[in-house]
Fold each of these.
Amino acid sequence: GQNIDQPTEMTATEGAIVQINCTYQTSGFNGLFWYQQHAGEAPTFLSYNVLDGLEEKGRFSSFLSRSKGYSYLLLKELQMKDSASYLCAVRDNTNAGKSTFGDGTTLTVKP
Amino acid sequence: KAGVTQTPRYLIKTRGQQVTLSCSPISGHRSVSWYQQTPGQGLQFLFEYFSETQRNKGNFPGRFSGRQFSNSRSEMNVSTLELGDSALYLCASSLEGSSAEAFFGQGTRLTVV
C-alpha cells in the first residue's frame, strides 16, 4: 500500500519562496506528481518526477529523493494567485494507472 | 481539444437512492480514474478503467461501481446512498504510461440529504 504525508496548511508572503514537502511510503514507486487545485476547481498538473533530482518549470520546481521517499515543490516569486491546495500523488508499479494522493497542502499567500 | 467532461455538475439525492455519474475523457485517452474528494479525507481513489476493464480498485464498499464503454466514456454508480457519500466526485483521464499526467474534470458535487 501507500502512505503519503504533506503539511496541512502553509502561509507565505507575496514575492517570497515556499517549499511544500511530501513524504511517501510505497511498495513499488513509479513516479510522483504534483497538482494544484484552486478552491472549487479541478486539480491541474504541475510536475512529474521519476528520477532523483530537481525538475524546474518556470517559477515552480519539484525535487525527488527516492531513497528517502521524499519530494518537495518549490514555488518562487509567489503571487496571490498561487493561493491553492497542492496535492502530491504517487504512482506505484504494482497497480498500473493507480495514483494515490496526499490530503493536500493549503497554501495561503498574503500581501 | 476538449477537456474531461463530467455530468451532471451538481446533484441532490436522498438517502437510499442510487445515482449514476458520467465522465467523458479527453479524446484518445483510454484510462479513466474516479476519485472521491471530501474536506476531511482528501482525494480517495475509487477505481480505474482501461479499455473497458476495471484495472484497479480502491477501498470502497460494493455500493460503488463503475464501467467503461468502448468509446472510453465511463460511468460510476452509487447505490443505497448514505449521508457520508456527499462529496465531490472527480474523474481523471490519461494516456497510458507511468509518466502520463491525469487530466481532471470539474467534478460532480453530490449532496445526499
Amino acid sequence: DTEVTQTPKHLVMGMTNKKSLKCEQHMGHRAMYWYKQKAKKPPELMFVYSYEKLSINESVPSRFSPECPNSSLLNLHLHALQPEDSALYLCASSPGVESNEQYFGPGTRLTVT
Amino acid sequence: KNEVEQSPQNLTAQEGEFITINCSYSVGISALHWLQQHPGGGIVSLFMLSSGKKKHGRLIATINIQEKHSSLHITASHPRDSAVYICAVPYSGGGADGLTFGKGTHLIIQP
C-alpha cells in the first residue's frame, strides 16, 4: 500500500465551527506533514511530525492544532477559522530521517464561510 | 530557509517538443525534488536527486550541486504531460523536515 489517504475531500465550515481533517498512511513511514496551498500558489509547510513528535511548527496560528495519535495517523483540528484560511490542505508522509521522499495525499479542499 | 527559483512560470508547447524547466536554489541541500501537480490538486513525486542525472520514461532530471541548479526535461512531450511542475528542496537542511517549493511551471502541451 503506497497511498496516503485524506478525509474529507471537501469541507465547508463556518467561522464558529470545530472540525478535523484526517490523514492516514500504512507504508511504515515515520514522518508526516501538513501543507497549506492557496489557489495558484505553491504549497507551504505548516507542521512536521517526526517519530510522532512535533518537530516543525511554522508559525501557524493556534486555530490550527495538529495531532499525531500514532505513526500512521495525522489529524489537523480546526477551530474559529477565518475565510482567508480557505485552501487545499495537503498531507504527506516520508520514510523518516533516512529519506525525505514525500508521498502526498489528494488533499482536503476547505472553504470557510 | 532556502529560496527556490523556477523558470519559466508558464510554458505552452506543441506535442512532440523537447521541454526544459529550470530550478535554482540558494543554500546547499542534501537532495532536490521534482513534483507534478494536476488540476484538482494531487501531487506526485517524480524525482528526488542529490547528484548527476535520473531518468524515468520520457522524464530526465539533472542537478549541478556546485552551481545549485537543476533541470527537468521532457522528451517527446504529449498533451497528458500538461500539469504544474514544481521544484522543491528540504525546508531546513535535510532529513524529515518538509519541503520548500518553487512557484511552479504551468506546462500546456497542445496536440
